[in-house]
């Protein structure tokens, strides 16, 4: 949660509080609208599950082909799954391991179904062996319909300050002794980090936050970018007019 909030404030932490609040609100509304349209497109394409669970299922299906299944109890559907050993590209040898899958409650001793709420590769291997529909055990919270409800717009425009209702709550009075009585902003003693990075720079060298396409300064002599006429090193014979 903290990292997600840091990504919202990236590049604007040095701005005034009002600007941070306005930008965070506008960015959140844009995010919800974009993801709502993406979920709506998935629903129009008759896709049942959200992209992340589908990606997880695809990897589990590919891995399930390498498992060996042995039935121990047909009554409750208890199976033993054996993962084959392998050698990684770094030369690390992974030994074969065994897991127990109970088809009645769709559980596995690897713990992944309980942690991620989606079938693991062992569950899929057992479902293929017993011709069981493993997708019926997936929760409805992972469906596209739930994804659409998650990103449904819930924000209202706050208009300008002149149209707000009168405020009748307590008033905050700042300590006069803590006021900054000098010109300019306070001197910062911390080191710059990724939170202070912005997306563009102007021709004067100052950063412009929230801008994706930075301005390019053109030389008045050769019309090329990234330098001016005082730093132009192109000979007169190669100047384009």
From TrEMBL:
GO terms for molecular function: zinc ion binding. Signal peptide: none annotated. Residues 99-131 form the SWIM-type domain. Keywords: Metal-binding, Zinc, Zinc-finger. It comes from the Eukaryota. SMART domains: ZnF_PMZ. This is SWIM-type domain-containing protein. The lineage of its organism: Eukaryota, Viridiplantae, Streptophyta, Embryophyta, Tracheophyta.
């Amino acid at each position: 949660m903290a990292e997600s909030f840091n990504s919202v404030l990236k590049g604007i932490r040095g701005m005034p509080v009002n600007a941070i609040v306005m930008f965070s609100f506008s960015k959140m509304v844009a995010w919800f609208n974009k993801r709502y349209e993406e979920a709506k497109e998935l629903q129009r394409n008759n896709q049942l599950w959200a992209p992340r669970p589908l990606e997880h299922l695809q990897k589990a299906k590919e891995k399930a082909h390498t498992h060996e299944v042995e039935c121990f109890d047909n009554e409750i559907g208890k199976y033993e799954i054996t993962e084959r050993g392998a050698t990684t590209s770094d030369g690390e040898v992974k030994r074969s391991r065994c897991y127990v899958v109970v088809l009645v409650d769709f559980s596995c001793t690897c713990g992944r179904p309980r942690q991620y709420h989606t079938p693991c590769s062992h569950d899929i291997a057992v479902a293929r062996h017993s011709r069981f529909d493993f997708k019926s055990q997936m929760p409805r919270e992972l469906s596209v319909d739930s994804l659409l409800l998650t990103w449904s717009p819930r924000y209202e425009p706050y208009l300008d300050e002149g149209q707000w209702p009168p405020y009748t709550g307590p008033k905050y009075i700042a300590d006069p002794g803590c006021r900054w009585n000098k010109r300019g902003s306070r001197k910062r003693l911390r080191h710059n980090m990724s939170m202070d990075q912005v997306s563009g720079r102007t021709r004067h060298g100052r950063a412009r936050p929230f801008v994706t396409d930075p301005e390019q300064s053109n030389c008045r002599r050769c019309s090329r970018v990234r330098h001016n006429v005082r730093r132009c090193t192109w000979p007169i014979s190669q100047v384009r007019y």
